[in-house]
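Reading a protein record of the kind used here takes little practice once its layout is understood. Each number in the token line that follows is a code from a learned vocabulary of backbone shapes. One such record is shown here in full, so that the layout can be seen directly:
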Amino acid sequence: VQLQACGGGLVQAGGSLRLSCAASGRTFGRSIMGWFRQAPGKEREFVAAITWSRGNTFYADSVKGRFTISRDNAKNTVYLQMNSLKPEDTAVYYCAAGRDITLATLSGNYDYWGQGTQVTVSS
């Protein structure tokens, strides 16, 4: 499985960005797609996830109501719409493909990772 993430950039606080993650290769068995982020000096943290089949979604409390994850099964692509961005959202954002939908928030559930895309929110 190859994951290609894009859409990051520099935005002012209160602005919006949309990240995309295109999956290719042998995606069979990867039931869930997730977004994680890692800020400088901090551990990688869960942001959002979505199941391929039913589109069930999961969000970290810190982004609920501001971020929306969606997927386009025909394009094998997952999106993360980020609104009302805050400086604390600044991080490298990674998409990942995982197996177990009951472990949506755990990074260990994901065995394929994209290269990361930088999101910087200025105050």
Remarks:
- The chain is about 0% helix and 50% strand.
